[in-house]
């Protein structure tokens, strides 16, 4: 005979979850699911912001990942190797990074130097630097003012960044574990 007490307890916990679906079956999974969906929506809004800001200052339509590459290349005013770009942006999709770099070069925002064993470096062109500076100015004028309206913004952003870095480690570890999981069946 099935344990009806345990079944009732599981059912009542699932019903208590405000979303009651396969990813949110109890309070901890509901909190994680709510966070994940908020993160996805924030990511999409962030990408739209990046594209809109870049289009406003340069008249160029690029996706958020290409925009991020441009800003990382401009960071600290020194050329970067593709390995650095991938590490800073936590990307593993080499072919897409290379394609993004080609788009940035075609737009005249990035130049490439070096070769083979010596190393290939990507640097911002004068136009690329100007675009990054104009982007930063518009970001200060529009986005930072908007975010500044939130209470305790700086403190909360610092805490959020710290927690997101910790969660990044959890997701990376879980991804490695998930890659081997199907082999155990």
Summarize the structure.
With 185 residues, the chain is mainly alpha-helical. The protein has helices at 4-16, 27-58, 64-74, 82-89, 94-106, 126-148, 153-181, and strands at 80-81, 110-115, 119-124. The protein contains seven helices and three strands, in the order αααβααββαα.
Descriptive overview:
This protein has 185 residues and is mainly α. The chain has a single domain (18-149), classed as Winged helix-like DNA-binding domain superfamily/Winged helix DNA-binding domain (Arc Repressor Mutant, subunit A). Helix content is 70%, strand content 8%. It has helices spanning 4-16, 27-58, 64-74, 82-89, 94-106, 126-148, 153-181, and strands at residues 80-81, 110-115, 119-124. The protein has a 3-stranded antiparallel sheet. Strand 2 (110-115) and strand 3 form a beta hairpin. Helix 2 packs across helix 3 and helix 2 crosses helix 6. The longest helix is centred in the first third of the chain and has 32 residues, at 27-58. It is globular, with a radius of gyration of 22 Å. The model has no long low-confidence stretch (mean pLDDT 89).
Task: List strands and helices in order, with pairings.
Elements: H1 4-16, H2 27-58, H3 64-74, E1 80-81, H4 82-89, H5 94-106, E2 110-115, E3 119-124, H6 126-148, H7 153-181
Antiparallel strand pairs: 1-3, 2-3
- Percent helix range: 55-70%
Rg value = 22 Å
Helix-strand category? mainly alpha
Q: Any idea of the CATH class?
A: Mainly Alpha
The CATH homologous superfamily is termed: Winged helix-like DNA-binding domain superfamily/Winged helix DNA-binding domain
Helix-strand topology string: HHHEHHEEHH
Low-confidence stretches: none
Domain HTH marR-type: 62-128
Protein name: ABC transporter substrate-binding protein
GO molecular function, one term: DNA-binding transcription factor activity
InterPro entries: HTH_MarR-typ, WH-like_DNA-bd_sf, WH_DNA-bd_sf
